[in-house]
Design goal:
Elements (H helix, E strand, L loop, with lengths): L1 E5 L10 H15 L3 E7 L7 E4 L2 E7 L8 H7 L2 H16 L3 E4 L5 H11 L3 E5 L12 E2 L2 E2 L6 H8 L4 E2 L2 E2 L2 H4 L2 H17 L5 E4 L2 H9 L17 H4 L10 E4 L9 H7 L7 E5 L5 H11 L3 E4 L7 H6 L3 E4 L9 H8 L4 E4 L4 H4 L6 E4 L4 H12 L2 H18 L2 H16 L1
Parallel strand pairs: 1-2, 1-5, 2-4, 5-6, 6-11, 12-13, 12-15, 13-14, 15-16, 16-17
Antiparallel strand pairs: 3-4, 7-8, 9-10
Helix pairs in contact: 1-17, 3-4, 4-7, 10-11, 10-15, 13-16
């Protein structure tokens, strides 16, 4: 079996957990005798073709350097045309059995080529962008429950504070051209659904949204992300005399850090360490200082350093305001025997078991966040018990072996 994955970004140029999970799945498949190739974007100093741990990577696409800036996001708009140009040539050359769109932005291009050539195609549904032109599944600060029309999208967009990872500034918010471009891009994603033989939603929430858009459940297989859990389990964990809280979500309001800062006002006996990238870091730092919150702010932490960082803290705070596809960081914390306090939204409901591996809190309820943090700060035994249960759950649901078997069975079903 030969799987050709298509991913706008791919390690070492990952922009989030999705690319890391794509690489983990590719390596797992190779380990079990499946041939895996990847079509991805090329950046300066990249070779046009390289081999990474048994995976053959073809860097032929052009895209923006990062999803975090307006200029780069405009450049990302050409990736669909690039896929439509490069994918047929690569298919003719290497003759894969299945093409797998590993991220949402690659779906329209893959769908067009798959229909034209007649090759089976599967789609990884790992982001709200599949169901929301804004990429958040938030409508006026709340989790949206129904599909968008153009009118309901515009209404939601003009009230949104962020669009994907960038701030929704006035010249975007009230610009009909921006409304139209975003909605058309999303329409292309939505219209591509018909070309795919099978879907891999990464959580039951993503699966439920596919059904809302008319995809039969039988054409879906929930495929959790493969996460290298051993790196977290093998780190020597500590229990600090003064508990250390960890936030690893980036400096954008939709990631929820301002809620945490507000919730920590008046609480003592902790240290909050924040890591990430984003243009609102200084604003949030000022908010913490003004609120008297004992917080330290750091830049982006490379994935290879996160296991050691996680082990040195006592709990993870995951306050995302956006319905995350799954919540990779929460799983990593659980694998490292750390309790998690997370927003009760999206894929976090697949990950954290309320009252057993952590606490789930209404995303915008500051009082509830404050109460949950106080509860775990004051109870070291509960933190330890949550950590033990979390580790068991992480290894039971998110291990490479179980996820590989699920993926292989779905691929075989597609070919049959």
């Amino acid at each position: 079996m030969h799987i050709l994955m298509v991913s706008e970004y791919f390690p070492p140029h990952e922009k989030g957990g999705g690319e890391l999970s794509a690489f983990a799945l590719a390596k797992a498949l190779v380990k079990h005798g499946v041939t895996v190739s990847v079509l991805t974007s090329r950046f300066p100093d990249d070779e046009a073709q390289r081999t990474q741990e048994g995976v053959t990577v073809y860097a032929r696409l052009v895209t923006g350097k990062t999803p975090d800036s307006l200029q780069d996001n405009l450049q990302r708009g050409r990736v669909t045309k690039d896929i439509m140009r490069e994918l047929p040539k690569l298919i003719a050359d290497i003759k894969p059995d299945i093409v797998h769109a590993m991220n949402i932005t690659s779906m329209p291009g893959v769908a067009h080529v798959a229909q034209d050539i007649g090759i089976p195609a599967v789609a990884h549904i790992n982001s709200p962008l599949a169901f929301d032109p804004k990429g958040t599944l938030l409508d006026n600060g709340k989790e949206r429950q129904t599909p968008y029309t153009f009118g309901s999208f515009v209404s939601s967009f003009t009230r949104a504070k962020e669009v994907g990872r960038i701030k929704n500034k006035w010249f975007l918010r009230w610009n009909p051209v921006v409304w139209t471009v975003l909605y058309r891009r999303w329409n292309a994603i939505r219209d591509s659904f018909a070309a795919f033989t099978h879907f891999f939603p990464i959580s039951t929430v993503m699966q439920e949204w596919l059904v809302k858009y008319g995809v039969p459940t039988v054409k879906t297989t929930v495929l959790y992300n493969i996460i290298p859990l051993d790196a977290f389990a093998h780190e020597k964990t500590v229990m600090n005399k003064t508990p250390k809280l960890l936030y690893l979500g980036g400096y954008a309001r939709y990631k929820g850090l301002p809620i945490i800062i507000e919730a920590l006002q008046g609480i003592t006996g902790y240290t909050l360490d924040c890591y990430g990238a984003g243009e609102e870091k200084a604003v949030m730092q000022a908010q913490a200082t003004q609120a008297g919150v004992n917080a330290h702010f750091f830049d982006y932490m490379p994935p290879k350093d996160i296991p050691k960082l996680m082990a040195s803290h006592d709990m993870l705070l995951f306050p995302s305001q956006v319905p995350e596809g799954l919540g990779r960081l929460a799983i990593e914390a659980m694998a490292g025997s750390k309790p998690v306090i997370a927003s009760d939204i999206g894929g976090m409901r697949d990950t954290v078991v309320q009252g057993k591996t952590g606490l789930l809190v209404p995303p915008t309820d500051v009082a509830a966040w404050s109460s949950a943090i106080r509860e775990l700060l004051s109870d070291a035994k509960k933190r330890k018990a949550f950590g033990v249960a979390g580790k068991k759950r992480a290894f039971a649901l998110f291990s490479e072996e179980s996820i590989f078997k699920t993926a292989l069975a779905a691929y075989e079903k597609v070919l049959s």
